Amino acid sequence: MASQGAFLFPTFLFFFLAGCRTPAAGVGNSTEFIREACGGTLYPQLCFSSLVGYAAVVQRSDVRLSQVASNVTLARVRSVSANVSATLAGAGAAAGPRLRAALRDCSEMLSDAAERAGQAAEALRAVESATGPALAWQVSNAMTWMSAALTDEDTCADWLAAPTAAGGGDSKAGEVYRRVREVEKHTSIALALIHKLGF
Ligand SMILES: *[C@@H]1O[C@H](CO)[C@@H](O)[C@H](O)[C@H]1NC(C)=O
Ligand SMILES: *[C@@H]1O[C@H](CO)[C@@H](O)[C@H](O)[C@H]1NC(C)=O
Ligand SMILES: *[C@@H]1O[C@H](CO)[C@@H](O)[C@H](O)[C@H]1NC(C)=O
């Protein structure tokens, strides 16, 4: 009798869990939604891997997806901006004047980029309650801010490229350079997802 009970319990558990699959399947749909939307960006895999964790928030909303992508971008720009400042502070005389100047200018550029990504995120929050021409206006604002952030990041990366390729006496600078290039990809993803809202 005891062994029969032990047999029945997992069977019951199986059906219980099977019955609970409905909400999980809803999340699965959201996952597919994110995968599909990411397919329209330049970096589909990075897009998917960085945003799929927010499936529950995104559901199947283009606006939410663009908000999440902008939030992720903002957090990453801030983190890289801190990296640049830390690298500048830690760079010894061996870093050379060229690399130090690039890091200093870059640090300013990236704070600017963070501010602009934040403004894009703010415009996207306004999108949620806007309709008609006001909606188009906010989407266009968000695109303007996010593409300005991308330009700032690109300028910073260009400044860092030559001195870090030359070694510059600082391997951390090379790592920071790679992180700036990576943040550009996240920004490009956010921009593509915002762009999608306008069409
Ligand atoms: C997923 O979405 C489709 C349509 O959007 C719906 O027909 C289907 O039932 C959903 N799947 C589940 C398991 O909820
Ligand atoms: C984006 O970040 C803001 C500020 O932290 C937060 O209030 C908002 O809920 C986030 N948006 C989404 C869609 O997660
Ligand atoms: C950049 O910042 C991140 C997060 O604060 C940290 O984990 C990483 O070690 C830093 N990298 C460099 C090269 O400073």
Describe the structure concisely.
This protein has 199 residues and is mainly α.
Structure explained in plain terms:
- This protein is mainly α and 199 residues long.
- It has one domain: Up-down Bundle (Butyryl-CoA Dehydrogenase, subunit A, domain 3).
- It has helices at residues 2-19, 21-38, 44-51, 55-58, 62-90, 96-129, 132-165, 171-197.
- The longest helix has 34 residues, at 96-129.
- Mean pLDDT is 85; it is low at 1-27.
- One 2-acetamido-2-deoxy-beta-D-glucopyranose binds next to helix 5.
- One 2-acetamido-2-deoxy-beta-D-glucopyranose is lined by residues 57, 64, 67-68, 71.
Bound molecules: 2-acetamido-2-deoxy-beta-D-glucopyranose
Radius of gyration: 23 Å
> Count of helices?
8
Q: Helices and strands: which structural class? A: mainly alpha
What is the mean predicted local confidence, pLDDT? 85
Shape: elongated
* pLDDT < 50 stretches: 1-27
CATH fold-level label: Butyryl-CoA Dehydrogenase, subunit A, domain 3
Would you list the SSEs in sequence order as H and E? HHHHHHHH
The level 1 CATH classification is Mainly Alpha
Question: How many structurally independent domains?
Answer: 1
> Can you give the helix content as a percent range?
over 70%
Report the sheet with the most strands, covering strand number, pairing sense and barrel closure. none
Q: Which band does the percent of strand residues land in?
A: under 5%
The fourth-level CATH homologous superfamily is Invertase/pectin methylesterase inhibitor family protein
Tell how many strands the DSSP assignment holds. Answer: 0
**CATH architecture classification name:** Up-down Bundle
How far do the termini sit from each other?
65 Å
